[in-house]
Amino acid sequence: MTGRVLRWAGLAVVGVTVVLAVVLASRFGSDPGLVDSPLIGRPAPEFTLAGLDGSEGASLSDLRGDIVVVNFFASWCLECRDEHDDLVAASESFADQDVTFVQVAYQEAAAESLSYLAEAGASSTTRYLADPGSRTAIAYGVFGIPETFFIDPEGTVVGKIIGEADALILGATIDSIRNGEQPGQQITGDTQQRPDA
Amino acid sequence: MSERTRNIASVAVIAVMAVALLLLTSTQPATSDRVEQIGTRLKCPVCQGESIANSPSQMAEDMMDLVSERVSSGVPDDQIIDELLSSYTGAVLLDPPASGNTLVLWVAPVVALGVGIAVILWWRRHPGQKADEATSPGKSRTRLVIGGVVLVLAFAGIVVVAANSLQDRPAAAAGAADIDEQDLSEVSDETMEAVIAANAEDPQVNGMRLALAERYFDGGDYRSAFPHYLVVAEDPNATGAEAITALVRLGWMAYDGNGEVETATRLIDEALAIDPGSSVARYVRARVLWCGAGETDQAIETFEELLADPELAAETRTQIEEDLEMANDGGECP
Q1: A124 at interface of B, judged by CB pairs closer than 8 A
Q2: Domain shared by A16 and A73, yes or no
Q3: Is 1.10.8.640 the CATH classification of the domain at B27-92?
Q4: Residues A26 and A54 reside in one and the same domain
Q5: Helix (H) or strand (E) holding B10
Q6: Is residue A123 included in any domain, yes or no?
Q7: pTM of the full structure
Q8: Is-contact A171 B195, C-beta < 8 A?
């Protein structure tokens, strides 16, 4: 009798330990940046940001009625460099289709971002904005870059791409929004944090 | 020492250890400052398990500035934390929430502690158990083996779960190499234009370029179709079939759009130089000569030769048959 009780008690301890260990282990390799964005399906956080060159910039509320693509980028981000040509191409291709591309510099001085854009080639149809204090990045829950958000004409966040986006993914996401769909979150690759983070 | 004293001592040792553990894992703020207090509860999203109050990263600094600003504005602590939760979810909390799938992290240690105390108490009240085990070495060995197997299985389970969780992030996005595999029926003209512009130097984009040009051509939009056909026609890496399609379309547009018969036949002849047997090139050339130069007999001859080919595509056959009938009746080309 005593032995049986002890056995069950021992098994219970092992069981609890295993459950605990499995829960811990399941979190071990997970990337916190891969959580589903709570913004999807909700009104997009408002922002009014100056242009990188000190120009007037843009306010999200002024873009209501357009599909707005908000991309966070920086010159130190390799994935951002890889996706740059695709963003430029998509921005220019959709420019007369009520789609506005906005690129927000992430944790970088405006002069560095401008220097990078001069080297990589800026799009004449994209708004390049500064985000002092990372307020907009924080409001959008940015974990690393590149991250790209899609806002429908009513101002609701309907999509997000974590990682490098190519023209096909950007275009297909915009197409699905134009069809009244909510593309949701897509993970395409790695994101980066500032090297000194 | 009496058995009762030993029991009390055992429970006391466990209780002291539990309290020490709780103190060690506690994240009570070092100061009473509200900003620091909130900062120690929030995890820096770009760091490894550090609070924004303790991390030197720029992001943590920016978040602390935000918290400080909110505190100065008189916003309650919970609202400040809720604001960040609304952007980052529970991933921004340093302590996992005592709900959902992390609830077990809070409950399991308490359950394990309770079971442990119960086992010790039970053992103390039944000291004969040790003697039983001493006289039954076979049973002890069996229990040891079972215990070992359970632990090995548990370890294997943990490794499997951990390995799976490491595969959360998928491979990089589809690149230019996958362009040819895309179903283009649902893809808009603007998306195709963007993909083509972004991969202009990649010969694999020629398939999409021709598909888009064909869309424009079929819609009568020669102005949009022309540059795409021209790029494919001049691309030394284009396949023979791609080049023939582009040259034939350019030829037809030269005639149909600008009435340039000579340019049209020259372009189509370039296609025929790649493949003299190309039925499409031969058909369009004959049609240009019939429609543009009135060479009806030559067109009829070519149409008949093409129709003699049993492998001619059904759609092309129907079209040629209609043209042949019209040409034989002496009618003008449509």
Answers
A1: no
A2: no
A3: yes
A4: no
A5: helix B3-25
A6: yes
A7: 0.72
A8: yes
Q: What is the pLDDT along chain B (334 residues), one digit of tens a residue?
A: 566 676 677 667 767 666 666 665 554 444 458 899 999 999 998 888 889 999 999 999 999 999 999 999 999 999 999 999 999 988 888 876 666 666 666 677 777 778 778 777 777 777 665 555 555 666 666 766 776 777 677 667 666 665 555 444 444 444 444 555 667 888 999 999 999 999 988 888 999 999 999 999 999 999 999 999 999 999 999 999 999 999 999 999 999 999 999 999 999 999 999 999 999 999 999 999 999 988 999 999 999 999 999 988 898 899 999 999 999 888 777 7
Q: Which class would CATH give B188-329?
A: mainly alpha
Cβ within 8 Å of residue A164, ≥6 positions away: A79, A80, A82, A83, A146, A188, A189, A190, B172, B173
Residue contact A138–B161, C-beta within 8 A: no
DSSP class per residue in B97-155? PSSGGGHHHHHHHHHHHHHHHHHHHHHHH-THHHHHHHH-HHHHHHHHHHHHHHHHHHH
The C-alpha R_g of chain B, in whole angstroms, comes to: 40
ipTM computed for the complex: 0.82
Cβ <8 Å between B188 and A45? no
Please report whether residue A192 resides in a domain. Answer: no
Question: Which one of A107, A138, A157, A190 makes the best mutation probe of the B interface by having the most chain B beta carbons within 10 Å?
Answer: A138
State the total domains in chain A. 2
CB contact, 8 Å: B141 with chain A? no
| Tokens encoding A171 | 């275009």
